[in-house]
């Protein structure tokens, strides 16, 4: 079988996953008769299951769905599943069905009979492992997706299959990344049970050291041109299935901003997750879970440009705000990353950027486990320096040289006036400082795929937090005695930081995510001390008012404004909050309910969905990374 057909199938057959009418398999999909009809219905059910957020409950409880060892949802018979689903999604009582669905979140939002039947078919196949054997490539790939336990991660993480249905491709929009994930390019992937060998016959290690550049592997290079070797059958079947349910690029809709003060508008993205290119107006292109934001004069024309961390597109992009480039208003382009997850120019899930006094861009990349530096005006092909990280996910010592000190899931990043780079380390629950000295030299850390430009004389130190200790301890105590509650999960962005503005900043603000509070580190003290700014430790909620009684729910990012206020991306409250210099907390955008209900309305009446970034433009615009809505929005001043 030719893997080239995988990507053709996504365009030819995707209608089978989106139509509301019965589906007849294409001859390209292989034969399967009635069994394949069932699989196509079940695949559509999986899309609906993800699209409607069922995994939020049913992957966390013994009700089934993606916990494949758990009891089924009210039984395993498809007919009963369908009846229960119909009752769960409508306000009318279904005769003969027990009344244990109140209150179900979809009680008042009825699904069609065909949608209910598809979800029931999906759940039925999950319950009856292994599913009935079919000969279709797509059906067999679906069987592997279910029996291989893929749902347990990919319904619950931004790696794919949870936002907008299964149509979110695993590891980003580039199809090669799927194959890399299953071929050794993503260290320790649980399904790396068959790994291709190099041209010299040396196996590429599935976890840990890669014996050669994965992008030089002949199997990967030939991915789109030749059939995979026989030993790759399972990987190729999964590729057929995932390509089938990955939709071609779509276009969303963005309302023209009417400019009323206090209203919310969209400046980039149009609600569809993915990547369709650059060099277009920013609302015409797609974003894919945008994270943190920054402002800088990227093209040295005297005006500020908006930097967007396009997380699941594995890119840093710039929007040239309020001007035309080559006749295009608000043009967007990629300035770092190429959409790949591995290789010389790759950024594997970048999460934050900062700029030093020379205009160099410093990027924290979560799944590369590295911090990179790009010169101002760079392009994705510009050589970069690796200022920290050894390409290994680990919690290194509190002090040490960068050449031998690994870092674990770096995220928030800032540059202090003395040019130390400060970053938060979510795996290890620490705030670190990096002193960059000397000239980068070509170095080969043992776990990096290729030599990197590394500052071998640079050093790391810990400003606050206890290594691998999670909880809440310390107000007014030295940083070494404080305990934070970052979430050391490689699929949950959290633990953002922001430095106080001004020539001599004293405070470094921290979103102490799982503790549901905002804290700050007083850098003017020796040693630095940690203090509570707002929120109740370990008390989730949604309440404005005095800082001591205000409540947050999983705050992920903070931004210190020039006027002394601190803005908070309150992710699970789906809101942006402001902590004033008077100690009062107010909500400036979001309603507390996830979703998207349009622009050109008061920001406090508009829905957001898991915002993970916020910043303030000098003209007063509040820019927001509306992450799960795949948009960057702003509040009109």
Strand order across the biggest sheet? 30-1-33-32-31
Beta-strand content estimate? 15-25%
DSSP helix fraction: 10-25%
Q: Specify the overall morphology.
A: globular
Mean pLDDT: 75
Describe the overall structure.
There is one protein chain. This protein has 11 helices and 33 strands. The chain is of the alpha+beta class and 637 residues long. The strands form 8 sheets. Strands 30-1-33-32-31 form a 5-stranded antiparallel sheet, with no helix packed on it. A 5-stranded antiparallel sheet has the order 2-8-5-4-3, with no helix packed on it. A 5-stranded antiparallel sheet has the order 13-19-16-15-14, with no helix packed on it. β14 and β15 form a beta hairpin. α3 packs across α6, α5 packs across α6 and α7 packs across α11. The radius of gyration is 25 Å and the shape is globular.
Summarize the structure.
By secondary structure, the chain is an alpha+beta fold. The chain has eleven helices and 33 strands.
Structural key phrases:
five-stranded antiparallel β-sheet, single chain, 33 strands
Summarize the helices and strands and which ones pair or pack:
Layout lengths: L3 H10 L1 H4 L14 H19 L3 H4 L19 H12 L23 H15 L9 H11 L3 H4 L20 H7 L36 H4 L11 H13 L17 E6 L11 E2 L8 E7 L8 E6 L4 E5 L4 E2 L2 E2 L1 E6 L13 E6 L5 E5 L4 E5 L10 E4 L11 E2 L8 E6 L5 E5 L4 E6 L5 E3 L8 E3 L4 E6 L12 E2 L18 E3 L7 E6 L4 E6 L6 E6 L10 E2 L8 E6 L5 E5 L4 E5 L4 E6 L11 E2 L10 E4 L5 E5 L4 E5 L2
Antiparallel strand pairs: 1-30, 1-33, 2-8, 3-4, 4-5, 5-8, 6-7, 9-10, 10-11, 11-12, 13-19, 14-15, 15-16, 16-19, 17-18, 20-24, 21-22, 22-23, 23-24, 25-29, 26-27, 27-28, 28-29, 31-32, 32-33
């Amino acid at each position: 079988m030719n893997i080239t057909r995988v990507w053709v199938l996504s365009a030819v057959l995707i209608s089978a996953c989106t139509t509301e009418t019965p589906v007849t398999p294409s001859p390209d999909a292989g034969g399967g008769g009635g069994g394949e009809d069932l699989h196509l219905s079940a695949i559509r059910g999986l899309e609906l299951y993800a699209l409607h957020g069922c995994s939020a409950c049913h992957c966390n409880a013994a009700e089934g769905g993606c916990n494949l060892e758990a009891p089924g949802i009210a039984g395993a018979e498809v007919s009963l599943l369908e009846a229960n689903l119909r009752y769960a999604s409508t306000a009318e009582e279904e005769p003969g069905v027990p009344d244990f669905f109140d209150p179900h979140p979809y009680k008042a939002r009825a699904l069609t009979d065909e949608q209910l039947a598809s979800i029931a078919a999906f759940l039925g196949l999950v319950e009856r492992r292994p599913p009935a054997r079919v000969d279709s490539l797509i059906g067999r790939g679906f069987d592997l997706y279910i029996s291989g336990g893929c749902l347990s991660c990919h319904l619950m993480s931004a790696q794919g299959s949870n936002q907008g249905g299964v149509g979110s491709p695993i590891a980003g929009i580039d199809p090669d990344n799927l194959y890399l994930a299953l071929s050794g390019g993503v260290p320790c992937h649980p399904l790396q049970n068959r790994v291709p060998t190099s041209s010299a016959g040396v196996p590429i290690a599935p976890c840990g050291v890669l014996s050669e550049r994965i992008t030089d592997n002949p199997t990967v290079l030939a991915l789109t041109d030749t059939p995979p070797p026989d030993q790759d059958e399972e990987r190729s079947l999964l590729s057929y299935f995932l390509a089938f349910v990955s939709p071609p690029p779509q276009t969303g809709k963005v309302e023209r901003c009417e400019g009323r003060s206090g209203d919310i508008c969209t400046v980039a993205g149009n609600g569809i997750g993915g990547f369709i290119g650059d060099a277009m107006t920013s609302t015409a292109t797609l974003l894919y879970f945008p994270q943190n934001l920054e402002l800088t004069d990227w093209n040295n024309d005297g005006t500020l440009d908006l930097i967007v961390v396009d997380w699941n597109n594995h890119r840093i992009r710039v929007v040239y705000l309020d001007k035309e480039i080559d006749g295009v208003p608000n043009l967007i382009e990629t300035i770092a990353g190429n959409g790949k997850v591995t290789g010389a120019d790759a950024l594997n899930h970048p999460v934050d950027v900062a700029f030093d006094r020379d205009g160099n861009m410093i990027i924290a990349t979560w799944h590369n486990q590295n911090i990179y530096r790009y010169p101002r005006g760079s392009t994705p092909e510009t050589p970069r320096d690796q200022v920290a990280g050894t390409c290994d996910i680990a919690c290194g010592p509190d002090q040490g040289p960068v050449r031998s000190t690994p870092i674990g899931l770096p995220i928030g990043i800032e540059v202090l006036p003395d040019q130390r780079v400060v970053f938060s380390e979510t795996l290890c629950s620490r705030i670190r400082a990096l002193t960059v000295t000397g000239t980068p030299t070509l170095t080969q850390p043992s776990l990096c795929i290729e030599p990197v430009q590394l500052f071998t004389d640079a050093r790391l130190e810990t400003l606050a937090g206890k290594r691998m200790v999670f909880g809440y301890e310390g107000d007014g105590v030295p940083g070494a005695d404080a305990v934070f509650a970052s979430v050391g999960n490689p699929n949950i962005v959290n633990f953002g930081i922001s430095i106080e503005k001004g020539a001599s900043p004293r405070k470094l603000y921290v979103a102490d995510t799982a503790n549901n509070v905002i804290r700050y580190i007083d850098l003017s003290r020796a040693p630095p001390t940690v203090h509570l700014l707002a929120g109740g430790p370990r008390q989730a909620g949604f309440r404005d008012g005095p800082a001591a009684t205000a409540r947050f729910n999983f705050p992920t990012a903070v931004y210190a404004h020039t006027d002394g206020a601190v803005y908070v991306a309150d992710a699970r409250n789906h809101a942006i909050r402001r902590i004033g210099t008077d100690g009062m907390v107010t909500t400036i955008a979001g309603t507390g309910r996830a979703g998207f209900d349009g622009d050109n309305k008061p920001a406090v009446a508009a829905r957001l969905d898991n915002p993970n970034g916020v910043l303030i433009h000098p003209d007063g615009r509040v820019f927001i990374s509306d992450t799960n809505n795949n948009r960057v929005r702003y509040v009109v001043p």
